[in-house]
From TrEMBL:
This is 6-phospho-3-hexuloisomerase. It is an enzyme of class 5 (isomerase). Keywords: Isomerase. Transmembrane segments: none annotated. Belongs to the SIS family. PHI subfamily. It comes from Paenibacillus rhizoplanae. Its EC number is 5.3.1.27. The lineage of its organism: Bacteria, Bacillati, Bacillota, Bacilli, Bacillales.
């Protein structure tokens, strides 16, 4: 199979995954983010990269958003929201973050394949994404793509859909958001 055919197969998998999104969970997350004081976003590996993209769009849409671990990220507090992206819901560093955020009084959101996970049990809000896990229990795979690529792609599409809802509800446009685009590049 050549790269064009692989790309077409990836799009088919992504279409199947996105068709399983729960609109109610997305709406609940949108409403929570609109009410939040500050929004903190975290994830490990490629899920973390999708989270960084989400935090950037949140900022451009007028929300106060930070990426956990950056030197300019302030402390989280009551009324704030921590959004975690984790396919497994078991990433140890994210579990520690969630525990600390809850003690402080912030809301914890988990976007995951596994809502019945350690992070899922800690989270105040859970969004289940229909991505494929890295590996099936029998050692086989449920996706053509390597590792958790389908989850990570679905995560980015879901995050962008939340941004579109925030834009719609706040009267944002791409043109207005471009005013907050980085200009020192």
């Amino acid at each position: 199979m050549d790269t064009q055919h692989y790309a077409q197969e990836i799009v088919k998998e992504l279409e199947g995954s996105v068709s399983g999104l729960n609109a109610g969970e997305g709406e609940a997350l949108t409403e929570l983010l609109l009410r939040a004081g500050q929004i903190f976003v975290a994830g490990a590996g490629r899920s973390g990269l999708m989270g960084r993209a989400f935090a950037m769009r949140l900022m451009q849409a007028g929300r106060t958003a930070y990426v956990v671990g950056e030197t300019v990220t302030p402390g989280i507090g009551p009324g704030d929201v921590l959004v975690l992206g984790s396919g497994s819901g078991e990433t140890k560093g994210l579990v520690s973050m969630a525990e600390k955020a809850k003690v402080i009084g912030a809301a914890v959101v988990l976007v995951t394949i596994q809502p019945d996970s350690t992070l899922g049990r800690l989270a105040d809000y859970t969004v289940k994404l229909p991505g494929a896990p890295k590996e099936r229990p029998d050692g086989g795979y449920t996706t053509l793509q390597p590792m958790a690529s389908l989850f990570e792609q679905t995560l980015l599409v879901f995050y962008d859909a939340v941004i579109l809802r925030i834009m719609e509800q706040t009267g944002q446009t791409s043109g207005r958001m471009f005013g907050k685009h980085a200009n020192l590049e």
